[in-house]
Design brief:
Blueprint (H helix, E strand, L loop, with lengths): L2 E7 L2 E7 L2 E4 L3 H16 L9 E5 L6 H4 L6 E3 L11 H9 L6 H21 L24 E3 L4 H16 L3 E3 L1 E9 L2 E9 L10 E5 L2 E4 L21 H6 L4 E2 L4 E7 L4 E2 L3 H4 L3 E5 L17 H10 L16 H12 L3 E5 L19 H10 L6 H18 L9 E10 L2 E2 L12 E3 L15 H20 L7 H23 L8 H15 L3 E2 L1 H17 L12 H25 L9 E8 L21 E8 L4 E8 L11 H10 L7
Parallel strand pairs: 2-10, 3-4, 3-11, 4-7, 11-19, 20-21
Antiparallel strand pairs: 1-2, 5-6, 8-9, 9-10, 12-18, 12-22, 13-14, 13-17, 15-16, 16-17, 22-23
Length: 671
């Protein structure tokens, strides 16, 4: 039962909220876990399941799920059309085909995919189907079939809406404007959470609030605030430092996904935004000197236009598609970062002539031409083709104050998703018992993944965590005296930091300056293009800056929360840099969505300067995952390479045996 008491801990009068399970994060994954756990507890006969859990969030409606999307944001699930023959085994093989992904996780995601998808349909997410009820699909990134579906540009927001409606219907308590600052642990694992109530950060107790619990589920999202060029919503950071400091092991932090996105507003430009084949051009910083900068690298207008088209479902930068559609990402990066020019996507005009040809759909290469003709998108201009293919994609920008019919979009190659995160087992439990990690924060993907697989993974992870908690971890939180003793050190450190920030001199570096420094460093050295010497220099620079920096920074406003977030961001960047540095030292080459530059490598295009030569991938590393663990006592990171888990294929289960194990609850005990 949820209770609130006040306790004197480390000399501070703090509220302590007691509840069995706390879920951190209010995106699609966190909300799903809450309502799934409610249902699991209800099915087990709990008369008041809402009293067993609580949701902690910085704000409902914040974060990636509610604020990000694309032309038609993809949800990846097995094919379900009347003429298809898909299986969970085939689906799992596709999920793990990118390498560096545990096969047992792929299998669980595959076997629960349709269960999670159809539940969203029944809750009201408007996934389209035929008159017969078939949910047909289309092809997406790294998809050998047509498994993708979409509810439109805002698929994940639609998911949030229906799940939030369920949360409110069940009466699950929500603690809003709370920043998760630290995990409290005891000998059994996670046992609590220290938060900052943002509305009370200037109070004498620094707005500190403790949750005494038995289970923690983190669904706080990806590391968007780490990068200067980012398509994540503003402020999206993810609790990476908090989990690292509690001893949770990270995995595959090297595997960020980068792609072309608009800057204002921040939005992915995949799918029909590319398949409509708009014109790319660049300008000087002041808008003068307009150039069709892609043209010199393509022999024909047909080749250029077809490469743009392929960016629709080959959206992330991929070294394996060089030369090919990813050449466009390289040229956009070169133009914006190296040449310091601005790049735009213009839906008012077709790509301009490379040779003497003029643009015509009929003259495109076969794949692009057939797609547009079959879709009926053969209109004269890109905006007309886009309107035919996806009018909601135009309406979305109009709602954000940008009219694609009258103005171009400024673009860049931006950080979009982290395929890595924190290591979990098949119940999405971390190496710290009773602490679960779901959504983008969980490192369940490999080097590459099908577009939209992250939404499926978030739903499956929430389901699995809820099942494990309801059926195995139903115990109460630790006794209050034991809990307060465990929490005292964490409270003392956080309170000391808060007091120091308030007393910081005006000469102390600002939180905003620290944040910008981190973002520039990460985009420059650990973004889409990585050069070993630059990565090592950035790692050394970040380490020295951390060691030599004054104990605190100022934040230019009452309170200390911005300064605390800056400190967390600083630790997160050092972890990511350490991971990239270790990968490169392990003979890692260009893979996933990052190019590793090397003088002995091959050029993306013969006309690009030698500085663009990149090292081919060392494919042997795809049979391994990289782990990273932080030791707070010594401020040291420890990286290792471990074989991917490849469990034997399961024997065909015997129904009577499964039924017995299910009735006794044994199926929830397996690991």
């Amino acid at each position: 039962m949820k209770t609130l008491l006040r306790q004197n801990i480390a000399g501070l009068d703090l509220p302590v909220i007691s509840v069995r399970t706390v879920v951190v994060g209010s995106g699609a994954a966190g909300l799903n876990c809450c309502v799934r756990l409610y249902r699991e507890l209800e099915a087990r006969g709990d008369a008041h399941p809402e009293a067993r859990l609580a949701l902690v969030t910085q704000g409902l409606g914040l974060g990636t799920s509610h604020n990000a999307g694309s032309d038609k944001q993809t949800y990846y699930k097995p094919e379900t059309g009347a003429d298809t023959r898909d299986s969970a085994a085939d689906f799992a093989d596709t999920l793990s085909a990118g390498g560096a992904m545990h096969a047992d996780l792929a299998r669980v995601e595959a076997q629960n995919a349709l269960r999670c998808f159809y539940r969203l349909v029944d809750l009201g997410v408007p996934f389209p189907h035929t008159a017969e009820g078939a949910f047909v699909g289309y092809k997406t990134d790294y998809d050998p079939r047509r498994r993708a579906t979409s509810a439109g540009p805002w698929t994940s927001r639609d998911m949030v809406k229906v799940l939030l409606r369920e949360l409110r219907r069940f009466g699950i308590p929500v603690f809003e404007r709370y920043h998760a600052a630290a995990v409290v642990t005891d000998d059994d694992g996670a046992c609590g959470l220290l938060c900052v109530d943002a509305a009370q950060e200037t109070a004498p107790n620094h707005g500190l609030v403790l949750f005494r619990c038995r289970n923690l589920v983190f669904a706080g999202g990806g590391p968007g605030a780490l990068f200067e060029s980012s398509v994540y919503p503003e402020g999206q950071m993810g609790p990476y430092a908090q989990l690292l400091e509690s001893g949770v092991r990270a995995v595959n932090l090297t595997e960020m996904q980068f792609g072309i996105a608009s800057l204002r507003p921040r939005w992915n430009l995949s799918g029909t935004y590319q398949q409509a084949i708009p014109r790319y051009f660049s300008t000087a910083p002041d808008g003068s000197d307009e150039r069709d900068f892609l043209n010199p690298y393509f022999a024909s207008l047909s080749g250029l236009a077809s490469a743009i088209f392929l960016k629709g479902y080959q959206w992330p930068l991929d070294p394996g598609k060089l030369p090919g559609s990813s050449l466009i990402d390289v040229l956009v990066y070169d133009e914006t970062v190296n040449r310091r020019r601005r790049v735009f996507l213009d839906f008012r005009k077709n790509p301009r002539a490379v040779d003497r040809d003029t643009f015509a759909v009929a003259a495109l290469e076969d794949e692009a031409r057939a797609y547009l003709e079959q879709s009926g998108a053969v209109q004269n201009r890109p905006i007309e083709r886009l309107a035919h293919l996806n009018q909601p994609g135009i309406d979305l920008f109009a709602a954000k104050g940008r009219d694609l019919r009258t103005e171009p979009l400024e673009i860049a190659v931006c950080a979009q998703h982290c395929n890595g995160g924190f290591a979990v087992d098949t119940w999405w439990e971390s190496n710290l018992p009773h602490l679960f990690v779901i959504g983008e924060l969980a490192g369940t993907h490999g080097v590459t993944r099908p577009g939209g697989a992250a939404l499926n993974a978030g739903q499956v992870g929430g389901l699995r965590a809820a099942q494990r908690i309801a059926h195995v971890y139903g115990g109460d939180p630790p006794a209050m005296d034991r809990f307060t003793a465990c929490a005292a050190g964490t409270v003392r450190r956080t309170a000391a930091f808060a007091a120091a920030v308030r007393a910081a001199p005006e000469t102390a570096p600002s939180a905003e300056r620290l944040r910008r420094t981190v973002q520039r460093r990460m985009s420059r050295c650990a973004g889409a293009v990585r050069e070993p010497a630059a990565v090592n220099a950035a790692w050394q620079e970040a380490r020295e800056a951390f060691r030599n920096r004054p104990a605190v920074c100022s934040q230019g406003a009452p309170g200390y929360l911005r300064a605390l977030e800056a400190r967390e961001l600083d630790l997160a960047q050092r972890a990511f840099l350490e991971a990239v540095r270790h990968y490169l030292a392990s003979d890692g080459g260009s893979r996933g969505s990052a190019l590793v530059l090397a003088p002995e490598g091959r050029p993306p295009h013969p006309d690009l300067p030698d500085t663009w030569r990149f090292k081919p991938e060392n494919t042997a590393l795809r049979r391994l995952v990289q782990t990273l663990q932080y030791d707070r006592a010594t401020d040291a990171f420890h990286c290792a390479l471990e074989p991917v888990r490849t469990p034997p294929e399961p024997e065909a289960p015997w129904f009577e045996t499964v039924w017995t194990r299910f009735r006794h609850g044994d199926v929830f005990l397996s690991t």
